[in-house]
């Protein structure tokens, strides 16, 4: 199964996190995170809730601010400089647990908003691209409906298409299937797999261990704000090195 | 297999906590923010010292006449001298203990309703709502049990404000509940009558309602039947207020899940029993904050009785400021009245917010 | 049909349908009886007091002056004209009050959500202070403690010999039509048309090529250049008359009477406190996820607000905002207490006293307010249906 996707992985690091620390008030949420992601790499972050995995990827596009350490994304360091933050956000797409589609805009408008206002793309071109990606996630026929008219799975696929319309170099997924009814999980995962096949650099926070095994190059296990273990999926699932990882795996893989 | 050793928690770096970090985050996070902060501080510097100077430092606190106000600041002597009038109107000064007693009875009587461990709140509350108004009327109006009668034309000041507001809300409550039931009724005639009544009163300003009470009500009544001015105003205030209460109660009834209605019907309860035993107790609990808010609105609106010549708190102040012996005291008078109204309204709105929060946690799934 | 069912089941009081009918018939009878009783009493009372009924009085000459009238009015004009003058004054105070209250309310509401601690605390103090003081008290305060306490016309505050602030109000230069007036209006219309065309072209270009166009600056230029040409060619559109102090008062120019200022200021400040709360809760109702989604797509602060947050917040804001507008309009009747010549004080006050026709006068007054209220709430219902989020 783990042989399913064979994509070349670049040598250069597209994301570098060095000694990243973060506090909420007095609470130490991220402890000395070091992470190097190469172009085309597909990483799954897992761990118990509150372990800091969502916070880690939210630091990558500055939805959360880190207080110590260095984060470099696509050659740009994240500082308080708004220009750099915007530059990074243009290259980093994100998919949320609760979709966060704009309910007052149609599916098509959801997809064209950012290309038109951020990339300054003409409407026609933006709509062409949007339709292209809506076809990719297999819901072009819904383009003129509103998010409230779609099922959860369809909404999440629209959210993926919306992020892709910005032609990002990196995609972040923050528990994309956790808010879905069980029968809709597969359609979203299939979309993510096909994205992986195209060589997208992906960081996914997810509990879908089947997905981790088939798609990931590397699985990272986090607990209490630190990276406990990281390994290739086969090693991670079959030969965990740490007792903490083993305990976690025994709890989720019966 | 390695046992994983977690790193210890570290305290956050100094630059992110403490006063300086707080100021950087909340006051000077960007140059726009810094400008805003400086502008706001300038405003405060402009207003607060001048206000303190006027109201306290330069104020005149003692004396009996206008001539005693020699300093530049506020002349609180005026408020001191007229305090009795502001509170009681023309209620005879030797009988003012009756007003105080009524107020104390009201507060003490209502106290058990706020004690958490007291369980029979509903029964007690209804009893209180029935008995207290009778007691209050006997005390304030007198004329029996050896109490000297004080006609309502002598009532005034804060006393009158409170009387109108509390009577207005208490009497409007049952009428409002009936109207809310009527508006949600499946009988078209009942619904139409209720909707028309509610929308009529909600569509016109209270001031025209008061005008009506003084010019129309005498025409509506059979010849020879005349009402006291206060009673006339009160009837119309109650009608007006019941329309607003009806809308608040209707909101509460809409929030009750349909399952409750169905469960009540399934138990074989008829319409009135289902409403009285199942729906209304839940709905009324939900709408208490809304009713308190309506009460605040009414409390502020009682000031409009100025238009028909009743001397409530605001009109007493206005009249006192027009007194030739105290000319130029408008600011002091209105500031004092504003303070009284503010204290009442603000504390009630806090109470209603507190209730809302309490109810919110009670109903969260 | 009813009979057949009745025959089968028997007309029993335990049948809920029979009871419903009975109950409704009783209600109708009671309402009619009450109405008849009131009408009967009123008629007898009016007969005995010698009050004529009917609307003939509207044609009669009023015989009193009005301090502020937007349309021509003299003492010889009819009561009907008084009604119109009063209504216009009510609408004037309401519209200006609504504009100021909206601006102030939005600023304060946004300020309450500011990350700046001082700004948000100041906004909170504003809201908690002004919404807990009766509007009538605020009107009286501005009127008696501020505006009429100003020095008289002779000691007025003089701003550049153009504006004079005194206990008689604010006197300012008044404009009247001059030779260039109509050409100027035509030029304005042309400028607006040109701007509309320009914006269309610019939007089309943006859609096709994605190149933005400085619509604002181009529009401003058009708006300045075309009317200026008209002024240069045809002369000034307006001539200004500066108020002069003659005797004890100012003559000429326009004046904002203190009653008007006290009323609009007090109502704006009072209503703005409520609008601020509406705006705050409207913006807060848009989930934080929406902002995060917009941010993660690279949208800046401006487009995030304009394209994502505000359109969603407005759906929550507009219904309660309208009812605040209605409240302000109804509250403008409080001006009767300080004698601002609006609908209630003129019509339900002076006209009623002069004619004694209380039923007709009160009826008309209430009908006017009901018409305003009902038409606005119908408009609101229509708007709410239009903007409701489409869900399945």
TrEMBL record, chain A:
The keyword Transport belongs to this UniProt entry's keyword annotation: yes
Topology in membrane: Peripheral membrane protein
Cell compartment(s), UniProt: Cell inner membrane
Domain of life the protein comes from: Bacteria
Residue span(s) of domain ABC transporter: 15-249
Alphabetic keyword roster: ATP-binding, Cell inner membrane, Cell membrane, Membrane, Nucleotide-binding, Transport
CDD domains reported for this sequence: ABC_HisP_GlnQ (cd03262)
GO molecular function, one term: ATP binding
Family per similarity comment: Belongs to the ABC transporter superfamily.
Protein name in the entry: Amino acid ABC transporter ATP-binding protein
The species this protein was found in: Pseudomonas farsensis
């Amino acid at each position: 199964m783990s042989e399913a996707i064979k994509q070349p992985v670049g040598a250069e690091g597209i994301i570098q996190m060095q000694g990243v620390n973060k506090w909420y008030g007095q609470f130490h949420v991220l402890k000395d995170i070091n992470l190097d992601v190469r172009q085309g790499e597909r990483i799954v972050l897992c761990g118990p809730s509150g372990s800091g995995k969502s916070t880690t990827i939210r630091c990558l596009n500055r939805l959360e601010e880190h207080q110590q350490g260095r984060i470099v994304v696509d050659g740009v360091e994240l500082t308080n400089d708004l220009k750099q933050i915007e530059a990074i956000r243009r290259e980093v797409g994100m998919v949320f647990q609760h979709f966060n589609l704009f309910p007052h805009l149609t599916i098509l408008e959801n997809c064209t908003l950012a290309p038109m206002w951020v990339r300054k793309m003409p409407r026609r071109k933006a709509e062409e691209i949007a339709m292209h990606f809506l076809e990719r996630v297999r819901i072009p026929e819904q383009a003129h409906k509103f998010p409230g008219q779609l099922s959860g799975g369809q909404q999440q696929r629209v959210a993926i298409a919306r992020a892709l319309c910005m032609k990002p170099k990196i995609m972040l997924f923050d528990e994309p299937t956790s808010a879905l009814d069980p029968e809709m999980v597969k359609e979203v995962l299939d979309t993510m797999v096909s994205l992986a096949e195209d060589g997208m650099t992906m960081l996914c926070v997810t509990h879908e261990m089947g997905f981790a095994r088939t798609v990931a190059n590397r699985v990272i296990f986090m607990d209490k704000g630190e990276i406990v273990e990281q390994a290739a999926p086969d090693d991670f699932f079959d030969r965990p090195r740490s007792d903490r990882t083993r305990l976690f795996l025994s709890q989720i893989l019966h | 297999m390695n046992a994983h050793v977690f790193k210890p928690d570290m305290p956050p770096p100094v630059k992110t906590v403490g006063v300086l970090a707080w100021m950087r985050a909340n006051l000077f996070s960007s140059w726009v923010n810094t400008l805003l902060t400086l502008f706001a501080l300038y405003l405060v510097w402009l207003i607060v010292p001048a206000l303190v100077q006027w109201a306290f430092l330069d104020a005149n606190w003692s004396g009996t006449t206008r001539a005693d106000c020699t300093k530049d600041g506020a002349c609180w002597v005026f408020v001191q001298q007229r305090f009795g009038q502001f509170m009681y109107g023309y209620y005879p000064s030797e009988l003012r203990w009756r007003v105080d007693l009524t107020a104390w009875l009201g507060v003490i009587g209502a106290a058990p309703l706020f004690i958490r461990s007291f369980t029979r709140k509903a029964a007690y509350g209804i009893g209180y709502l029935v008995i207290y108004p009778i007691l209050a009327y006997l005390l304030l109006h007198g004329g029996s049990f050896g109490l000297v009668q004080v006609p309502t034309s002598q009532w005034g000041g804060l006393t009158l404000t409170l009387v109108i507001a509390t009577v207005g809300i208490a009497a409007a409550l049952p009428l409002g509940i009936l109207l809310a039931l009527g508006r949600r009724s499946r009988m078209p005639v009942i619904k139409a009558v209720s909707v028309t009544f509610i929308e009529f009163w909600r569509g016109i300003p209270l001031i025209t309602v008061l005008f009506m009470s003084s010019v129309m009500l005498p025409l509506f009544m059979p010849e020879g039947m005349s009402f006291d001015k206060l009673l006339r105003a009160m009837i119309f205030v109650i009608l007006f207020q019941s329309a607003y209460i009806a809308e608040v109660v209707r909101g509460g009834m809409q929030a009750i899940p349909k399952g409750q209605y169905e469960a009540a019907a399934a138990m074989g309860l008829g319409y009135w029993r289902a409403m009285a035993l199942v729906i209304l107790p839940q709905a009324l609990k939900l709408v208490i904050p809304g009713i308190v808010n309506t009460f605040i609105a009414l409390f502020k609106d009682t000031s409009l009785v100025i238009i028909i010549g009743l001397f409530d708190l605001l009109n007493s102040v206005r009249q006192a400021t027009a007194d030739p012996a105290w000319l130029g005291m408008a600011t002091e008078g209105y500031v004092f009245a504003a303070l009284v109204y503010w204290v009442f309204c603000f504390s009630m709105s806090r109470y209603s917010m507190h209730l809302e929060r309490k109810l919110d946690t009670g109903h969260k799934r | 049909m009813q009979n057949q069912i009745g025959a089968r089941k028997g007309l029993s009081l335990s049948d809920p349908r029979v009871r419903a009918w009975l109950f409704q018939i009783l209600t109708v009878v009671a309402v009619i009886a009450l109405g008849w009783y009131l009408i009967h009493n009123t008629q007898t009372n009016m007969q005995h007091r010698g009050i004529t009924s009917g609307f003939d009085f509207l044609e009669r000459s009023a015989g009193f002056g009005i301090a502020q009238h937007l349309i021509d009015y003299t003492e010889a004009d009819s009561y009907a004209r008084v009604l119109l003058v009063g209504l216009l004054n009510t609408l004037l105070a309401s519209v200006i009050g609504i504009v100021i209250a909206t601006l102030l309310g939005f600023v304060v509401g946004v300020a309450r959500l500011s990350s700046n601690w001082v700004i948000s605390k100041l906004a909170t103090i504003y809201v908690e202070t002004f919404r807990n003081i009766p509007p009538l008290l605020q009107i009286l305060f501005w009127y008696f403690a501020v505006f009429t306490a100003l020095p008289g016309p002779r000691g007025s505050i003089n701003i550049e010999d153009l504006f004079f602030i005194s206990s008689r109000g604010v006197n300012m230069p008044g404009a009247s039509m001059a030779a260039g007036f109509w050409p100027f209006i035509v030029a304005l219309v042309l400028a607006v048309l040109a701007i509309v065309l320009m914006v269309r072209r610019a939007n089309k270009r943006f859609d096709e090529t994605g190149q933005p166009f400085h619509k604002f600056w181009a529009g401003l230029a058009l708006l300045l250049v075309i009317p200026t040409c008209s002024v240069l060619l045809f002369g000034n559109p307006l001539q200004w008359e500066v108020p002069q102090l003659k005797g004890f008062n100012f003559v000429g120019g326009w004046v904002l009477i203190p009653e008007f200022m006290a009323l609009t200021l007090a109502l704006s400040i009072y209503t703005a406190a409520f609008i601020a709360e509406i705006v705050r809760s409207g913006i807060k109702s848009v989930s934080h996820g929406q902002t995060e989604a917009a941010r993660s797509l690279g949208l800046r602060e401006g487009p995030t607000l304009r394209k994502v947050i505000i359109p969603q917040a407005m759906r929550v804001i507009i219904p309660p905002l309208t009812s605040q507008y209605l409240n302000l309009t109804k509250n403008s009747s409080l001006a009767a207490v300080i004698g601002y010549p609006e609908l209630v004080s003129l019509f339900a006050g002076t006209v009623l006293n002069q004619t004694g026709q209380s039923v007709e006068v009160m009826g008309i007054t209430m009908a006017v307010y009901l018409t305003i209220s009902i038409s606005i709430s119908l408009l609101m219902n229509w708007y709410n249906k239009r903007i409701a989020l489409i869900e399945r």
